[in-house]
Amino acid sequence: MITRPRPSDADEPTGVIAFSGLMLAAAGILQVLQGVAAIAQDQVLASGPKQSLQMDVTTWGWVHVGLGALAVLVAVGILLNQAGAAGAGILVAAAGCVVNFLFLPYYPWWALTLIVTNLLVVWALSLQLDPVHR
Asked: 18: closest CA among 118, 86, 116, 94?
């Protein structure tokens, strides 16, 4: 009987790391979709009580596509338990929060959803990096 060697427990991601990696990947995919939508529909018409404002969001779209792609790559590193991936994930998720906060005037509900998702990723990765919770 041929048996495969089991990977050690250090090679398998814990539940918190798996959660944060999957959530960061989901946030990255949603961020890419948000960027593609902003590039495709680059003219946004915002109207207030006494004025209308037409804005071009093409640049924001490319920022979201780039950050989303980076988030997916870091998420793969997190799921593979790569050294430094958790720290990079915190930085990418924090950058996602900032970018989506600045994008609130254009698509508020979508941006809020991604802010909350990125905050969950920061929380989960912070738990993993905290030596008390290991």
From this structure: 86
Mean pLDDT computed over every residue of the chain: 82
Quick one: which of 12, 7, 23, 45 has its CA closest to 117? 23
| Dist CA 21 CA 12 (whole Å) | 13
Over residues 62-78, mean pLDDT: 94
Specify the pTM.
Answer: 0.78
The mean per-residue pLDDT over the stretch 82-103 comes to 92
Whether the CB-CB separation of 70 and 28 falls below 8 Å is answered with yes
Residues, the chain = 134
In this prediction, residues 86-103 reach a mean pLDDT of: 93
